[in-house]
Amino acid sequence: MTLPSAPFQGVSGEQLRVPYFEDVGVVVFPPAAWCSPWGTSGAPLMARSSHQLMARLAAYFPIVWLNPPHERDGVWRAARARLAGTDAPAPDTVPAGMHVAACPPWLPELHRPAWLRAALRRRRLAAALRGFGPRPPARLALSLWRPEYAWAAGERPDALTLYHICDEYTFADHPSDDWQEERALIRAAGRVFVHSPGLMERKGHLNPATRLTPNGVDFDAFSRDWPEPGALAAIPRPRLGYTGALKKHLDFELLHEVATANPGWSLVLVGAAEPHPEIEAPLARLRALPNVHLLPPVASGAVPALVAHFDACMLPYRRMPYTDQIYPLKLHEYLAAGKPVLATSIRTVREFAPVVTVADTAAAWSAALRAPGTDVAAVRHRQDVARQYDWRHPTLTIAREIVGALAPERLEEFERHAASLGPRAAHGVA
Question: What is this structure's pTM?
Fold first, then answer.
């Protein structure tokens, strides 16, 4: 079996090797197309956990990434992209061992009639399996990243179903546990991987084969020294920075109070504003402050350099049931850079109180800014914590579960291979 291989520089500039277990294949049903978050030359625009993990999992198993289908009204747009050759990602953004399958224009996601929707889904799955080439792997896993992909498990009952819960998929401010579609998928899945402690508390009891796999960090990228980006050159120091989407889940009132109380600090927010009407007025108030700087989004490959030249970083989330379920990717990115981190007291961050200032008032944040903790020992301590959460750890956990379920006769071989990567990599998160 051979998959298309290409140089891939999206993981700390390292080219990933060909799959180690070629007789076990993984079909990924992701939340977003591969080409939307990963830009040219391996620079991701929005590095979701699905992309980070599957890019690395391709070092162990042949992977087919099936881009999400378009709706009926997107058929002509998809057809034009296919004809123009723009529906496929740039070759240097795809790791060796992975094939990205674009959804054919003639196979959209329809909601009715039910028989036609089921037929189109079967055709899409068949198209994905052809991505493995003329000799498909003998054993198959389905990696599902949304409840709406539960149908795929029904189509291939012989496959191992992996369900990843990296967010509260209702996206409601006050989520409920009554979503029967997701509960049924969790119970039926062969393995469930939950990314946050809050979600684990709510959903981990539904399936005994559930594992907590916290979000990680590309430690090598965020811990190295970087030249100062031009976008920051004109912004006075010290800088209190944030990277990510500007959305309704952020506490803009807190940011306004902090900026007003600390005119000597520059608050730098890098990211696009989500289309949430309720944030328009708060953002306008922030823009009016002379020490607040709103910068446009950058490719994720450029984020480590930005963080390297912040003097402190922030996680300014509003306290609500939804944010108590999240696991911010930027948490370990900030720590890997060794930066002091100020955060509101959401569920995940509270567990990192020894290395993060956790507070919900502008007064407490201002006090922390007066003594941010930038000495060498504090920097190294933050980095030591972040190192334990390098993406290789959850990748190995997932790979181990796949091998144990589909190729148990090779589990000892896998453990020897994992051990050769070092003790932390072999045993996962400490």
Answer: 0.89
